Amino acid sequence: MGFEGPIWPVHLTADEMEGLTCYKQLEDLPDAPDATFIGVNRFTTVEIVKQLSTMNAGGAVCFASGFLEAENEDAEGADLQRQLIAAAADMPILGPNCYGFINYLDGALLWPDQQGGERVDSGVAIVTQSSNIAVNLTMQRRGLPIAYIVTAGNQSQQSIGSIGAALLADPRVTALGLHIEGFGDLRAFEALADIARKLGKPIIALKVGKSSQARAATVSHTASLAGEDAGAQAFLDRLQIPRVNSLPELLETLKFLHVIGRLETNNIASISCSGGEASLCADLAVQRNLTFPPLSDRQHTNLRAALGPMVALANPLDYHTYIWNDEPAMTAAFSAMMDDPVALTMLIVDFPRADKCDAGDWEAAINAAINCAQQTGRAVAMVATLQENMPEDVAHRLISGGVVPLMGMQEALVAVEAASSPFSASHPEPILLPAQIEGTHVLTEAEAKAALAEFGIQLPEAQSANSPSEAASLADTIGYPVVLKGVGIAHKTEAGAVALNLQNADDVCRAAKKMPCNAFLVEEMITGTLAELLIGVVRDPAHGYVLTIAAGGVLTELLKDSQSLLIPTTEAEISRALCKLRISKLLDGYRGASAANYPAIIEAVMGVQNFVLANASKVEEVEINPLLCGADRAVAADALIRIAKEKP
User: Is the domain of 561 the same as that of 534?
Assistant: First the structure.
C-alpha cells in the first residue's frame, strides 16, 4: 500500500518480520504507537489493551473473538468484553472480533488478510460488522473507488454510527455505505445522520437480520406485524437513509453517488439499440419509484434529427443500430435525450467478453457517453444488463469522464431509485429509546379502554357483566343493536368470544352462553363504518417504540397491509402512512362512498402515541383493533394494553 510511516512489530520470539526488526514487548517501543493491531488470544488482548491505554496509544484493533458474540456458547464472553471496554478507558478500539481497517487514501492499514483494493485520491467509505464481507468487498471489480473499509465487529466501544461519523468528516470521502447486522447505539446513528445532512454526503444501508426480540411479544396482532424488520425500516426511513438488499446493490449505489450524487427528481430516460433492453428496463422500473416521462417537444425534434425517420421515438428509446459505431451521430442522439424533465439518462450497453471477442466497435459508445456528459453537464449512466458485461477498465474510463458505469440492470435501477429518494435537510426529533422492562401483564379490555380514553380515544358506550343474564339486562339499557365480547381473551374473534349485531336480550343471553368465559363486555354497535384499522405500538428493544398502522379487524393477518413509524412521530407522518396503505381507497371513499374522517383517525393515533409517551417506562405494547373509521368519527372497538407488573 506504500505506507511511509514507521511500523513496529511486537513479538515475543521472532527477531524480524517482513524485514522489520521485532520488539519483544510494548515497553521496548520507541514511543506510544498511533494505532495497533492486536493479534493474540482474547485474555491477552485485554491485558495489552490496558497497557496501550496506559501508554496513551492512539487506538487499537482487537482481532480476537470469544467475547460477547460467543455468550451463548461461553458465559465468560460477555464479562470479558466488559473487561475489555474498561481496559481501553479513553483509548478508542475497534472490535473485538474484527479485522480492522484499510485506508486506501493514505496507504495505511491494520489488516490480517489479503485485500484487493488500491490507493485512491477520493472515494466512498464502507463500514461493516462482518470481516469476511469486508474482505469480499475489497475484491470488487466494478470500478468503485473505495477510500476506507472498516470492520466494527462487536461494536463494544466504537459503534457503526461513531465510525461512520469519523469517516464522513474526511473531505476525500464522498459517500458512506453501511452493512448492518444490528444498529447498536441508536443515538450514534441519529448523530451520524445529522452529520451526513450537514455535510451533504449521502448514506446507503444494507440492513440484514431479522429482529427476534420484538417477536417475543405475541399477545397482539401488532407484534406479528412489527416484530421482524419493521422497526429497522422505520428507523432508516426516519433518518432518510435509503436501504438496499444485496452487496451488488450497495456497491452500485455507492458508485452512483460517488460519480453523480443525489438526483433532484426520479425522472429518467433509457436509450438502447434493442427493443428487448428497452422493455426490460421499463418492466424492472415498475417495481421502483422511478418515472420515464414522455418526450418533450424539444427532445422529440432533436431525436428525430439525430436518428432519422425510421426510429419510433419514445422513452425508453430503442434507437436501433443505424448509428452504431458512428461517434458523432451517437453523441448527437444521446445528447438529444438529455433534456428536461430528465434527471438521468441511462445508456444501455453490454460489452463483449475480451477473451473471445473484439470490443473495438464499442469505443464509439464509450466516447459518445463521455462527450455527452461533458458537453451537456447532465447526469449520464452507462448500464450493462449483466454485471460481467462491463469490463473494469471501461468502468474506470467512464468514471474519469464523468459517466457512472452501472453493472446489472436491476442493480442500476435500485441505485437510481436510492439516489432520487426524497431528501430533507430537516433534523428529525430523537426517537424514544426503549425502556428496560421485566415482567408484564395484560389489562382487561375495560381497563385498557379506560386508560386510552384519558388520552382522547373515542369509545363505544359499554358496560361490564358477570353472567349471561346480567349481560342481557345491560344490553336493554344500552339499546340495540349491541356487541358482546368475552373478557380476558386476547384474540377474541379466533376464540369465538365476539358476537356482533345482537338485536334483543335473548340473542345476548344465547351468545354469552356460547363464549369460553364467565365475564362479558356489552357495547353499543357502531354503524356507518367505512374501514377498519389497527393502531398499535410495540416496545422493540433494538429500535425503540414501533407504531404500526394497518388494515384492521379480520383483515389484519390476511392482508398484512401495514406501515410502521417510530415514536415520537408527527401528524404529517401519520397522514402519509395512512395514504400508503392499500386500503386507503376505502378511507378516501370507494365507489361513491363517503370518505372517512381523517382528522379523527389521526387524533386516535396521536392519542395512542401520547399514552405511550406518558407511560414509556412500563408499556410493552398497545393495540386498538379495530378502530372503526366512519365519516364522522373514529371509535376504538377493542383495545389491548400489556404493561409492566407493579413492583411489590
Answer: yes
